[in-house]
Amino acid sequence: STGMNAVLTKPFKEEQLKLALLEYLPRTDKIEDAKTSPDEEATVKTTVLQEGLIGDAEILHDLTEQIGSEAVKALLELALTDLRQLHEALKQAFADEDTDKLTITFHTIKSSVHALGAVPLANIAAKLENETNNLQLVRERMPEIESLVERTLAWWEEQAESIDNTIADND
User: Fold this and answer.
1) pLDDT class for 101, splitting at 50, 70, 90?
2) Burial class (CB in 10 A: 0-12, 13-18, 19+), 72
3) pTM, whole model, 2 decimals?
4) Which CA distances in Å does 36 have to 18, 31, 80, 88, 126?
5) Percent of the chain having pLDDT more than 70?
6) Sequence-separated (6 or more) residues with CB below 8 Å from residue 56
7) Are 147 and 49 in contact (CB under 8 A)?
């Protein structure tokens, strides 16, 4: 498959780079300690997500600077609807074991969520877009995907509300 995965647009922050690399680089303690289990590795990824790195507010801030608050709020509202639909399509494609539909859905998620700051979800979608023939891997990652989708939706709702409040304060 061609295309770019885990794209970082300049300027990017150190946290964005860390999140992008997390998917592709082994942990240094994993190299030194071969006893690291998949559960421990999953715990590290979960910890990163629990530390509030579900979305990059700087991406939304930069976008707001470029196109304005009302436009970003409208984009967030569309993205909320789209991600809910993509999530359902993903679950259906997985249930049907439709690898082509899985690939397309992961690609669409990857492409659409990164622009609105959902870097962790974009990264896992990018990784799984190229792994859909391995349904066992997709099955293992589904709980993580489910969590990321739900947390991304909640984060976007918070951001839209914050923008709403800012617009109301400026009126």
Assistant:
1) very high
2) buried
3) 0.70
4) 20, 9, 37, 34, 25
5) 68
6) 13, 15, 16, 117, 119
7) yes
